[in-house]
Amino acid sequence: MTFLRISSRAFALALLASLCATTPPDVEAATHPTVETRPSTGLQAQLEDLARRARPGMFGITVLDLHSGQAWRVNAGRAFPMMSVFKAPVAAAVLDRIERGQLAMDREVVVRRDALESGTIRDHFHGERMRFTVGELLTAAVSRSDNTAVDALLPLAGGPGAVTAFLRAHGIEGMRVDTGERGFRPVFEGLKPGRQPPADESDTQQLARLRRGYRAYLADPRNRSTPDAAADFLRKLWDGRLLAPAPTRRLLGLMYAQTTPSRLRQGLPPGVRLADKCGTSYTLEKTTAAYNDIGILSWPGGRAVAVAAFLTASTAPRDERDALFADLARAVAAALHPAAGNATAPSAPARRSPGASAAPA
């Protein structure tokens, strides 16, 4: 998740401009949703309706039944910006190294003040440097979506290229990790790496620069995933084909513990568990570059479904964006497990996979 500091006058200018602004032509053309052309019914029709509701933004969705392998898809082969969703594959690569004996959970990592990004670590940082164990960084990165934590973990995973290579080695195509959170700061700010805004920059010039940065981010191919690739990542994690049993339980536990922000979770009936990872950009002039949630829904009795949902270039207010995700979860639950609303307490799936008995770590 990336946050920028913008002056109050610039915000006022942005608000005024947004009253008459439209989505830039290049962004609008790149984000016009496509849906299945064949006649559709049931869950597929509901996904297509959600994609239409999201316009002029693009909503990409893959719903994958982890028992039958049946999938429902809309805009699912397109690459979307992940934002903090990328923290899940980074954590997977780190946990794999720990399992192989190349890294230790209790290893201490020094974080310096000049490396701080947004999140709880920055909010509670004191002094010029602090030490965190790898285990603490994993919890902060996945469960609390801390940006400093994931940037500290990325070198321990071998760097962005090693994370992508880890995904490819497990047959996951269409998901790539190219940089950490800090790598996107200059993109959003419309600056070259290492450069600072001009000291005499006016609010109008600042707003123009931020607009350029936003367009640049929407066109940036780095740290992207297709919904299909994200669903494949979730399937292989749940089935124990991504990690060994212990790290599988660890990562799922960290994902179960992520309760904020609440997107798919808002639409879940009682008794359904969700292990998920969200991703969010900031909003400029009523446009949100990325608003995502990927996760595994599981029911008492063993049913499990992977849902990967990516929303980009959305001009909808936050409550409408949240409603898209909540309605998606409701549609999945109603279509694939209509009796779930009668369940009273979550339990582990009956399937004998490493993900089946996962509990928060």
Can you count the helices? 13
What structural class results from the helix and strand content?
A: alpha+beta
Question: Could you name the CATH class?
Answer: Alpha Beta
The biggest beta sheet is recorded as:
6 strands, antiparallel
> What is the CATH homologous superfamily assignment?
DD-peptidase/beta-lactamase superfamily
Poorly predicted parts: 1-39, 340-361
N-to-C series of helices and strands: HHHEEEHEHEHHHHHEHHEEEEH
Average pLDDT: 86
The share of residues in helices is 25-40%
CATH fold node name: Beta-lactamase
Strand content: 15-25%
When the domains are counted, the total is: 1
Shape: globular
How widely separated are the two ends? 23 Å
Radius of gyration: 20 Å
Number of E-state strands: 10
CATH architectural group: 3-Layer(aba) Sandwich
For the structure shown, list the relevant keywords.
361 residues; alpha+beta; Beta-lactamase; six-stranded antiparallel beta sheet; two-stranded antiparallel sheet; globular; disordered N terminus; disordered C terminus
Describe the structure.
This protein has 361 residues and is of the alpha+beta class. It has one domain (8-342): DD-peptidase/beta-lactamase superfamily (Beta-lactamase, 3-Layer(aba) Sandwich). Helices cover 38% and strands 16% of the residues. The protein is built from 13 helices and ten strands. The strands form three sheets. Strands 1, 2, 7, 8, 9 and 10 form a six-stranded antiparallel beta sheet that branches. The protein has a two-stranded antiparallel ribbon with strand order 3-6. It starts with 7 loop residues before the first helix and ends in a 25-residue tail after the last helix. Residues 1-39 and 340-361 have low confidence and may be disordered.
